[in-house]
Amino acid sequence: MEFNTGLVIDSFPLLLIGAGLTIEITAMSVGLGLIIGLFVGIARIGGNKILRLLANVYVDFFRGTPLLVQIFIVYFAVPVITGQRMDPFVAAVSACGINSGAYIAEIFRAGIESIEKGQMEAGRSLGLTWVQTMRYIIIPQAFKRVIPPLGNEFIALLKDSSLVSVIGFEELTRRGQLIIARTYGSLEIWLSVAVIYLAMTITISRFVAYLEKRYKIKEN
Amino acid sequence: MINIRGLHKYFGENHILKGIDLDIAEREVVVIIGPSGSGKSTLLRCMNYLEEPSEGAISVDGIVLDGEANVNKVRENVGMVFQRFNLFPHMTVLANIMLAPMKVKHIAASDAKQTAIDLLTRVGLADKADAYPDQLSGGQQQRVAIARALAMHPKVMLFDEPTSALDPEMVGEVLDVMRKLAKSGMTMAIVTHEMGFAREVGDRLLFVDDGRIIEQGPPKEIFENPKEERTKLFLSKVL
Ligand SMILES: Nc1ncnc2c1ncn2[C@@H]1O[C@H](COP(=O)(O)OP(=O)(O)OP(=O)(O)O)[C@@H](O)[C@H]1O
Ligand SMILES: [Mg+2]
User: Is the CB of B75 less than 8 angstroms away from the CB of A132?
Assistant: First the structure.
């Protein structure tokens, strides 16, 4: 067996471009997921029965089906209905964002429910509305508690984003496949790809640990 | 000030309040005592709709509590102090007190701050304005909680066992604040196990058992000469 170091060095710039795209879809998907997750998470504990039902269906569906199938639905099945071809990047971010929205909704719900009931009661007894109490009292406290699980979700999504290689979007995994198709350097390229993923996930978990420390909750 | 008619409360199958009629006059201090689980907290919490009555009518200062719109209006006039303080841990003492006046009554920050500082002075904690709740003792936290409720200029104050979570040496400082408040003419409903305080500050004492008001009257009379068997039994245990 021979390890072709030259191939690794030559391929690295291309792989890094792929890694940049991986970060881009992951960041945009998490951004989308955070927005969806906040509203869906709140809908799951809010008083409105219809919203709660819709939120439950959403969370159950997207947590209960494989992300790969969701990507296929967005990229191949939705165009059948709309009659429009879908851009792979848009499809990737939509599928990953909607998927992570379901997980993030659960993270927010658990975070909000972990705040002592007395906080909502104190807010309401002062004349604040439910929305105001959520906004000024509950969510700021819950936010600090959801940082660690959100970090985990970010890391999970970064890894799962490799699945969008199946629709031809040239993120890190797809770049690796393409280079191997050209050079047959499976060993060198897959190891390089793995190392780049690892570098990214370690960076994120360090950053999350830093945030966690910085926002260390003051609890009584 | 508060008028309650035919109040019933069920939690699922459990019948917790079984027909309460109660009128609290302006400037009156009503103290509520009774065994654990008798429904004292539930009664108090119905007065600001933290619990929704299953049956009956409640009005506060002439406004009938029935829907969300009224409820927020009424809550502006009803302060509540909890056993476990429930201060907002992510905000300074000052911010705790200023929040509701600014967000509910849209009072300017500078005015809200002045009011907050005045109230902190009144409860003896002017030097703690910038502290966070977890830097304060239980007694101090509860005094902040009282100041926070007073910042809305309520017409009635509800207290649910305000000293039960405190170390004994801190009970006095909280009761002092409440005593002064009563003297200043605040209308108050207080659930407490502090019998000495009940006797001293209460204009009227209610003994609640099993979801009903069993006996009521001037505290001295009830303590010295209870008429109902259940009251006698309860007092013999706590006095
Ligand atoms: N949210 C709730 N859901 C179900 N049951 C409840 C709820 N709140 C109170 N209860 C029940 O109602 C009964 C009366 O409760 P409440 O808190 O009013 O009693 P209390 O007189 O304040 O007692 P304590 O002196 O222990 O505070 C209890 O049996 C309690 O378990
Ligand atoms: Mg109670």
Answer: no
Identify whether the C-beta of residue A163 lies closer than 8 Å to the C-beta of residue A69.
no
Would the pLDDT of A218 be above 60? no
Distance from C-alpha of B123 to C-alpha of B34, rounded to nearest angstrom:
29
Residue B210 Ramachandran class (φ > 0 left, ψ -120 to 50 alpha, else beta): left
| Contacts of A14 by beta carbon, 8 Å cutoff, 6+ apart | A175, A179
Q: For the residues A28-56, what does the mean pLDDT come to?
A: 93
Per-residue pLDDT of chain B (239 residues; tens, 9 = 90+): 899 999 999 999 999 999 999 999 999 999 999 999 999 999 999 998 999 899 998 999 888 887 777 888 888 899 999 999 999 999 999 999 999 999 999 999 999 999 999 999 999 999 999 999 999 999 999 999 999 999 999 999 999 999 999 999 999 999 999 999 999 999 999 999 999 999 999 999 999 999 999 999 999 999 998 888 889 999 988 87
- The structure tokens listed for B78 are 């009803």
B125 at A interface, C-beta within 8 A: no
Helix H, strand E, coil C: the string for A41-106 is HHHHHCCCHHHHHHHHHHHHHHHHCCHHHHHHHHHHHHHHHHCCCCCHHHHHHHHHHHHHHHHHHH
> If you measure CA to CA, which chain B residue comes closest to A117?
B86
Q: Determine the residue of chain B that is closest to A215 in CA distance.
A: B90
Query: In this predicted complex, what is the ipTM?
Result: 0.90
Spatial contact of A158 and A22, defined as CB atoms under 8 Å apart? yes
pLDDT at residue A143, as a whole number: 86
Q: Considering Cα of B69, then B31, then B152, then A123, what sign does the dihedral take?
A: negative
Nearest CA in chain B to A139: B90
The DSSP H or E segment spanning B100 is: helix B93-104
Do the chains contact at B134 and A219, CB–CB below 8 Å?
yes
Q: Cα-flanking dihedrals φ and ψ of residue B78, to 5°?
A: -125, 110
Cβ of B86 within 8 Å of Cβ of A127? The answer is no
Ligand 1 mean position to A4 CA, how many Å? 73
Residue-level pLDDT at B69? 75
Look at residue B188 in the predicted model and tell me its pLDDT: 96
Mutate to test the pocket of ligand 1, among B11, B49, B237 (most ligand atoms within 8 A of CB): B11
Torsion of CA A140, A145, A148, A153, to 10 degrees: -70
3-state helix, strand, coil in chain B (%, to 5): 40, 25, 35
CB pairs under 8 A between A and B: 69
